[in-house]
Amino acid sequence: MVVRVQETDFDVGTELAALHRNDPQIGALASFVGFVREMNDGAGVSEMTLEHYPGMTEKALAAIVAEARQRWAIVDALLIHRVGRLLPGDQIVLVAVAGSHRGEAFAACQFIMDYLKTRAPFWKREVTADGARWVEAHAADEQAAERWQT
Amino acid sequence: MRLKILYFAGLREQIGQGSEELDLPAGVFDIAGLIQFLVARGGQWPSLATVRNLRYAVNQEMARLDTPLCPGDEVAFFPPVTGG
Questions:
Q1: What is the CATH number of the domain that holds B72?
Q2: Contact map slice: A 86-125 vs B, CB within 8 A
Q3: Does residue B79 belong to the interface with chain A, where contact is any CB pair within 8 Å?
Q4: Per the structure, how many domains does chain B have?
Q5: Contact criterion met (CB < 8 Å) for B83 and A53
Q6: Which candidate in A3, A129, A145, B6 could, as Cys together with A114 as Cys, close a disulfide (CB 3.0–4.6 Å)?
Q7: What is the pLDDT of residues A64-87, one digit of tens each?
Q8: Average pLDDT in the A136-146 region?
Q9: Number of Cβ pairs closer than 8 Å across A and B?
Q10: Min distance A22 CA to chain B CA atoms (Å)
């Protein structure tokens, strides 16, 4: 299990190959990549800065991935989240889950993203034509995370 | 009781600093009491009471209003998270 918080970009192909590492018990590898959008809440975004809580962020991410591994019989998982200044089109986050079958790989990947959005201490500050603003949390993200609590 | 307190994101900007070390008076023993104590200092501190859905962590774990505080704890206040 790999969890990284970093300013630098990542190469998806390299990261997925490292997760797969030719392990023949892996039959499915599901991944999600999040990017900076050029529009948010009706305004053009020229750049974004991601702030985090060093120490707690890494612990929170590790706990989310560990919970995914408890819930599903997956082989391995990878989570990389960038911080610092980003531009539209830049990669923000990569979640990848390797398992024997696609069902648990898809589910665990979605679970990790839904929990990350609501439980990991990151904050987005975006710059628009009207100046800088902190991105507001969305109720839909909370609802997406809550559906796993059954 | 001495504590380290951290503020993040919009709350850090409203309060005007990212961290402080603080000696708590007797009688403050949980998050609710700490918020009350900080807000009573006036100035920019009442922001803590007006932030929508304020979140708090003690020693880097999410906490509740009744989470107890111990000497040396690291307490963090922040708005709802928006990563991913």
A1: 3.10.20.30
A2: 92-93, 113, 116-125
A3: yes
A4: 1
A5: no
A6: A145
A7: 999 999 999 999 999 999 999 999
A8: 94
A9: 71
A10: 28
CA distance A45 to A83: 17
Q: Residue A48: which of A129, A136, A140, A133 has the closest Cα?
A: A133
B82 vs A120: CB contact, 8 Å cut-off? no
Evaluate whether ipTM surpasses 0.90: yes
Mean pLDDT, chain B, integer:
96
Query: Could you tell me if B6 lies within 8 Å of chain A, comparing CB atoms?
Result: yes
What distances in angstroms separate CA A114 from CA A32, A47, A59, A120, one per listed residue? 11, 24, 17, 10
Q: Which of B8, B57, B84 comes nearest A34 by C-beta? A: B84
A28 and A84 Cβ atoms separated by less than 8 Å: no
**A37-65 pLDDT, tens per residue?**
999 988 999 999 999 999 999 999 999 99
DSSP conformation letters of B37-73: HHHTT-TTTTHHHHSTT-EEEETTEE--TT-B--TT-
Residues of B in contact with A125 (CB under 8 A): 9
- Name the pTM for this structure: 0.95
Q: Tell me yes or no: is domain A2-145 CATH 3.90.1170.40.
A: yes
In a domain, B49, yes or no: yes
pLDDT at A131: 95
Q: CB distance A121–B8 less than 8 Å?
A: yes
- Comparing CA positions, the residue from B40, B36, B30 lying closest to residue B65 is B30
Confidence (pLDDT) at B52: 87
